[in-house]
Structures are given as C-alpha cells and as structure tokens.
Design a protein that fits this description.
alpha/beta; eight-stranded mixed sheet; Rossmann fold; globular; two-stranded parallel sheet; 219 residues
Length: 219
C-alpha cells in the first residue's frame, strides 16, 4: 500500500500521516515547506512543491495506489474574518490536476476531506454556523469543497468525499456515526481529528464508500 497525502502539515493531515505510518502504509507527501514535517520514517518520502505544480504532482503520485487529500483553504488565524492564506480555489484547482494525472498513471482511488455543510447538507447545519459560512471567510473553504466534490462526481475515479462535522483536538477512540442519506441518522456536532484520520484510513484500506459522500460525527 502506498498513498500520496496532500495537506500533511495541516492539523488533520498530521494525524492521517502519523496513523498511516503506524499502520505500515508507505506515504508520499507533497508540501510547500518540508521543515514542517517533523517525522522521519523509512516509509515516508517528503517532496517540496506547491500542489498546483503538475510536474511535482506527477512525480509524487508515481507508484501510489491512492490519493488522500486533507487540503483546506487556510486563514491567518481561526478568527472567521481573518484573511485567506491560500487561493480561494486551491482545492478545486489541485483536484483538477490530480484527476488528470491519476488517469495518466492509472490510479483509480481518491479520498478527500470535505465538510458537513456543503451542497445538500447546508440546510442541516446550525443556523449560526450557516450564517458564518455565508458572511465570513470561513465560507471560502466550503465553496471550494463544493467545487472539488463536483469535479470528482463527474470524474471516472473511485472517489470518496468525507464530510466531518466540527473538528476538535481531543483524544480520539470514540465510535463514529456515519450518515449518507440526508440527515439520517442526524449527526452530532463534533468529532476529533484523530477519529477522522482513523476513518479516512479505514475507508482507504477497506475500499468502502466508493463514489459516495459520507458525513461523520462522534456517536
């Protein structure tokens, strides 16, 4: 097993990277700053480049059987109106390149982290958070998650979009509730990043939820 992990320096991406290596999975990562990867491991290959660089992406995807993306639109702080650090279309621009290169390299499997509150689930989230998405820079990420999912939905790839609810840094190990049919069962409001990482890798190893978007929350 060998994956390319995008977004490995983010808070959830770090969890996915650590758990993947512990599970014996070979991991390529493509990051803008290799100094942010503090793990040294024989199964880890670190490459430095912007994810929009097609040449670097192609090299990073060589020999992989799946792509996992934990990329997100980042802001300078957690304050909802803080300025964006990345392009508003980072996710969709990156996934467009990934889809094209995956077809070249005969890679079928891709798993992306999206969010509860995109597309048909927007009316299911709490009103106050829907207001923040509509009126602050938080919304940039949600809108690009939607563009990313739309690109995957029309691609030939075996994709899975995982839509976690509100993310926490608490210790994981809790049971996970999954929701595919709209709001049934109704998800809870939080899930730990550690449990999200565990679910992502489980979906990869079991080849489950093919061509589906699944909401996850703590049980």
């Amino acid at each position: 097993m060998k994956i390319l992990l995008l977004g490995a320096t983010g808070r959830t991406g770090k969890e996915i990277l650590q758990q993947a290596l512990q599970a014996g999975i070979n991991v390529n990562v493509l990051v803008r700053d290799t100094g942010k990867i503090q793990i040294a491991h024989q199964a880890l290959r670190i490459m430095e480049s912007k994810t929009l660089d097609q040449t670097a992406l192609r090299q990073a995807m060589q020999g992989c059987d799946a792509i996992i993306s934990a990329l997100n639109i980042s802001r300078t702080s957690d304050f909802p109106w803080s300025r964006l650090r990345t392009s508003k279309t980072l996710l969709s621009d990156t996934i467009r390149n990934v889809i094209a290169i995956a077809s070249e390299l005969s890679i079928q499997r891709i798993i992306v982290l999206s969010a509860w509150g995109v597309h048909e689930t927007k009316n299911d989230i709490p009103f106050w958070f829907r207001w923040l998405i509509n009126n602050s820079n938080i919304g940039a990420g949600y809108r690009d998650h939607e563009r990313q999912e739309a690109l995957l939905n029309t691609s030939p790839l075996e994709w899975t979009s995982i839509r976690p609810v509100g993310l926490t840094n608490f210790k994981g190990g809790k049971s996970i509730r999954t929701t595919i049919a709209r709001n049934s069962p109704k998800p809870n409001l939080v899930i730990s990043r550690s449990d999200v990482a565990h679910f992502v890798l489980e979906v990869y190893q079991e080849k489950s939820y093919l061509k589906q978007a699944v909401i996850i929350s703590e049980q």
